[in-house]
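Sample intake — Signal peptide protein
Collected from: Rhodopirellula europaea 6C
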Amino acid sequence: MKPATITLVALVASCLFTTHGWSQSAPTKQQLEKWHKQFPAADTNRDGTLSPEEATAYRKKLLGRRGKQSNTNRATQGAPRQFKVDAGWDQPRFPDEAVCYKTPAEIKAIYEDVKPANQNTVVSFPEPTGRERRIVATGHSFMAPGFNTLPKICKAAGIQPMLYTHTGGGITGSARYKWEQENGIFQFEGSPVPKLLASISNGDWDAMMFGPYFNDKPEYYSCWIDFCLKFNPDMKFYLSDAWPQLYQLGENPTSESFFTEEVFERLGTERRTMSNEVVDVLRRKYPDKVFVLPTSDAMVLAAQAYLRGDLPGIEGVHRVIGGKQRSLWKDQLGHLGPGFERLEGYVFYATLYGESPEQIKNPIAFGGDASFPSPELDQMFRKIAWQAVTEHPYSGVKDEDGDGTSDAHHQLGNRTEGQTDAK
């Protein structure tokens, strides 16, 4: 088998097995029969039946091969920026069998058949009594740090976290990929996994969050937005704009001396331009509905603060370039360095709830190393997050009076509707 074929089959096997909850519960007889047809080589004893043990062994074998190859590619190239997208996205309508066209009861029944045994078919939260917001989200490893820290920040702020996600690594966490996966269309034809669609159509929600990906298009988000508004017409939508990455430079610099405040300003401007190609279209189509989680601006401000010596305990800009463990970024792909998961969580909190993290007086139970980040560094993260959010024209949050609370909250009696700030 050629290496390219191995990689393709491994990717398909990974998506297939993981999609159907392989890691959470034993596969059904129907799933094993389907896998046997697609991967006959997995039937090692050639008895015509694929056992759970054979499926497990085959999956591990293929993923092991893929891991060796992908680790090499990622170390030198970062995430793939060119990939094939199904031509069906150019059609005016999704295939008729798409889950999004079914009734809430039908969607619920579909997910009931494929969900992991330990997971609810429909997730819902009680009606908010204060500043709570019921949030669904897709995302990848760039969003994961914020998804992990946001609930902890909310608890310290006296807000009950209400977040339900469907995530994946890299492209598998993109809005486009998750829409195909949940609907059972294109690469997932006949195998829908409507984890979020079941809950969105059968419950009440206030907001949805997304992580960006290469070659994004407005339609990858508008399909989600249209579906959400059909069942929850008051929902708001928040797109992260990620942050600067090494690929923008063409080639890696030989030294961290290359990085200046001006360089990061330029990289941040490029990121905003790329993000706005999608966001501007969506904001015109859905007035007062679409906003930005300005993680890119926050990381640019953090990088500039580091260069000025204002991030105590941070040792470098990029571990790939300078080799320092406590750097802003830790690998070629651009994942956040240690401690910066707090900064992303603070940006999420400030945008969604219209309040500066500096206003939170209770200790936040982040866990991990209690000595890092230090209280001084943590306070800088909070300050940077609020600055990034209030200065971004698409965040929906303004603080003209400087009291650490969105100005729109005063107008609306402190209800979490600060998104009306941005027009």
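Post-analysis note: The CA atoms of residues 142 and 335 lie 6 Å apart.
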